[in-house]
Write a structure and sequence with these properties.
The protein is of the alpha+beta class and 473 residues long. Helices cover 36% and strands 17% of the residues. The chain has helices at 57-70, 160-202, 228-237, 252-263, 279-282, 295-302, 316-328, 370-375, 385-395, 400-415, 424-439, 446-455, 460-466, and strands at residues 6-7, 11-12, 17-18, 25-26, 31-36, 41-45, 77-79, 84-85, 92-93, 99-102, 109-111, 209-212, 218-221, 242-245, 267-271, 284-285, 291-292, 304-309, 330-333, 337-340, 345-351, 377-380. A hairpin with a 5-residue loop joins strand 12 and strand 13.
Length: 473
């Protein structure tokens, strides 16, 4: 029989494989039936699934009879090929487990322990059922919510293969609750950090700086800039010239004046531009040949703090004269002659750039020559947001939210590379306007206040890059 169809004996799967009839996975180690011919396999099936196409029950029984006859009427003992009933006692035969033998009529099967006295040709009755696999039901997770917690307890299935799969995926399901807790904890930590930052800016006391002079007298500087101590060390202790560079409104001039207050010295100041002449430093003789002594002469001769504001906007002629006076320790003044530099003469200069020329924001600044840069020690002077909050609240105790909005816009402009000066003056001026608006019952909207003090005619595209949403007065 070249095309003889055989029903291979009971097997157990070495690997998990889908049933060729119902498609449900046959677990590893579970009983199955392997139908095949001599030339090809017809697939693997659950014990309770239908027989594959092409199987002929009559042919199978005929082959069994021929095999029985070839054996010389010997009993053919095997295991049940499929579930049915014993033709002797009527009790069920279990596929792949029950030992059965072919009756002498060559048509029916009985238990090996039953008497072979049946001659009835009773067809076995087969009942096929789709196997039911115990699969755990996992409720689909909704959209991730940081406050959501997984409380449902899932039990492992009883089937060995499914239990093994379940053990593999269980950690991933269990991490839903863990990840939710971690995310929630992270958000709480970020919120706490923001609250701490807000507390540092708005609530931390700004300690006044106490100065003890050489004569043992004391001075107190209110709301000192973070860089003031460094400036006092360079200009006050070391008596060296300092150049403060930083954005407009950062308090550079106030820092120079604080040095004069701390050292109990006279304070002089001058603001330069491209038309400033050297006579602002040297002075001149009037028509009556009387020397008009400038502030620089007074500070140079008798001591004092001399502030040169906007030095990166000065002409080269004036800076050349200034360099000579600072480097030599003496200077000739018209009608006066040589004057030696006083020991308490302190020169502090300020500018919006580092002296290397104009930039996109301060596009009309001059480049300082190397000799001028060499005379000064450079100190970066940025915004002091803690003092900014204090100054604004001094004008209006209810302006804290307004100051936060201004500072948030400043940070966003810096992050997005928008060249705009959002200075503390915007916070202070806005606080004053809000106070007057409340006093006279005038409605002042946030957008109007921003247009007045911050945006100042900016185009809509630029405003969209720096505006802060979700904040109100």
């Amino acid at each position: 029989m070249e095309n003889k169809t055989e029903w291979t004996a009971f097997r157990r799967c070495n690997v998990a494989i889908p049933c060729s009839k119902c498609g449900v996975i046959i677990p590893k180690g579970s009983p199955n039936v392997d139908w095949n011919t001599r030339n090809s396999s017809l697939g693997k099936y659950h014990n309770d699934c239908s027989k594959p196409a092409g199987w002929n029950a009559k042919q199978q029984r005929t082959e069994s009879v021929e095999e029985y006859q070839r054996e010389g009427s010997k009993e053919v003992v095997t295991t049940a090929k499929f579930s049915g009933k014993c033709n002797s006692c009527g009790k069920p035969t279990i596929q792949g487990i029950t030992a059965i033998k072919l009756c002498r009529d060559g048509k029916t099967w009985i238990h090996t322990f039953c008497s072979d006295n049946t001659s009835e040709t009773t067809e076995q009755t087969y009942t096929y059922q789709t196997p039911v696999i115990d699969v755990p039901t996992v409720k689909a997770e909704p959209t991730m919510n940081p406050t959501m917690k997984t409380t449902e307890t899932l039990d492992a299935p009883k089937d060995p293969l499914l239990a093994m799969i379940w053990e593999g995926i269980k950690p991933y399901i269990a991490t839903v609750e863990t990840d939710s807790k971690k995310l929630n904890s992270t958000l709480e930590a970020i919120e706490e950090m923001m609250s701490e930052l807000e507390r540092k800016i708005t609530q931390r006391p700004i300690e006044a700086l106490a100065i003890t002079r050489i004569d043992l007298s004391t001075a107190t500087i209110e709301s000192p800039h973070p860089q003031l101590k460094l400036l006092l060390f360079v200009a006050g202790q070391c008596r060296q010239w300092a150049y403060l560079y930083g954005p407009a409104g950062s308090g550079k001039s106030s820092g120079a004046k604080a040095v004069a207050t701390a050292l109990n010295l006279p304070f002089y100041a001058i603001s330069l531009n491209k038309l400033s002449t050297p006579t602002l430093v040297t002075g001149f003789l009037d028509v009556n040949r009387i020397f008009s002594d400038p502030d620089f002469y007074k500070a140079y001769k008798d001591g004092g703090v001399y502030l040169i504001d906007e030095m990166d906007n000065a002409s080269g002629n004036l800076l050349t004269t200034l360099n000579s006076a600072l480097a030599n320790g003496f200077m000739f003044f018209p009608g006066v002659g040589e004057v030696k530099q006083h020991a308490d003469f302190i020169c502090i200069a300020t500018g919006n750039t580092t002296g290397r020329g104009a930039d996109r924001q301060y596009n009309d600044r001059q480049q300082l020559d190397a000799a001028t840069i060499d005379r000064f020690n450079f100190i970066e002077w940025g915004y002091d947001e803690a003092s900014e909050m204090k100054w604004a609240l001094a004008k209006n105790p209810n302006a804290a939210n307004w100051v936060k909005i201004v500072q948030a816009i400043r940070a966003k402009a810096l992050t997005n590379g928008v060249r705009i000066a959002v200075t503390p003056r915007a916070s202070i001026n806005g606080a004053i306007m809000l106070a007057h608006a409340k006093a006279c019952d005038f409605t002042l909207y946030l957008q109007t206040l921003l247009n007045l003090t911050v945006y100042k005619g900016l185009d809509r595209d630029t405003i969209s890059k720096i505006e802060v949403k979700g904040m109100s007065l």
